[in-house]
Amino acid sequence: MRILNFGSLNIDYVYSVPHILRPGETLAATKMERFAGGKGSNQTVALARAGAAVWHAGCIGADGGFLREMHCEAGVHTEFLRTVAGPTGSTVIQVEESGENCIIYYPGANHRITPKQIAETLADFAKGDILLLQNEINAPGEIIRAAKERGMKIFFNPSPITEAVKEYPLELVDCFLVNEIEAAELAGADRDPAVALAEKYPDAEIVMTLGKRGALWQRGETRIAAEGFSVRAVDTTGAGDTFTGYYLKALCDGLPTAAALRRACAAAAIAVGRMGAAAAIPAATEVDAFFAERR
Ligand code: RIB
Question: How close is the Cα of 295 to the center of ligand 1, in Å?
Fold first, then answer.
């Protein structure tokens, strides 16, 4: 079983600010840093640092060479990562003192994936392999359909959530990786979002993050929950991506669901204590040490 992540790669320009800007306000940042980001790339890096063999497919511009190098250093398979004309995807991220953020996203090369690239990439994968996908690239619906035709298992993180997501072939998704807002939006119901989403997609597993309260798994009426960890947040950017990569790796290792959720929560808790997205994702040994300290 192999894991393919068809996902975005971004250059994150991160501004540390006293508070997130209000409309019309001009505010001096106390720091500006450039980080490797993109929900797709972050999740791939999390998988690799967790110890998984992972293939990343996507597009960068000529300015995104450092993202390719970072993937190579992390041991990611990069033969399906294309360099195309135009700029790499980028973001402007404000991080306030509480660690909360807000993000402006410019897709750039992430929206230059072609039907040819999709076909060439998926040709290498087969029944039982896993496709992981987020919502920062073009053509996610086409990729889901083509991967399902090959018998791949579809893990979908509909982030950032948009109206267009509802038009994707979501009935083909095997596992939704969502936060509470995304679950409520997809379920379209004014009640427990994980229950509502599980009812809407009865064949799918729902994995829902709850911030510092932890995470839960839902299928039908069955729920498994894991508590989160109380840590001081410096920057929450990429915490959900770290969770996703670690959860998927734990699942592939055959960990019971509760243990997989808890390990993913621990990895995310470490990540929020550091600046940056990919830069903050811990290695598996750090997650082991985090647990050992709490025993
Ligand atoms: O999930 C965090 C990521 O969202 C950032 O790295 C940024 O690039 C945006 O895509």
Answer: 32
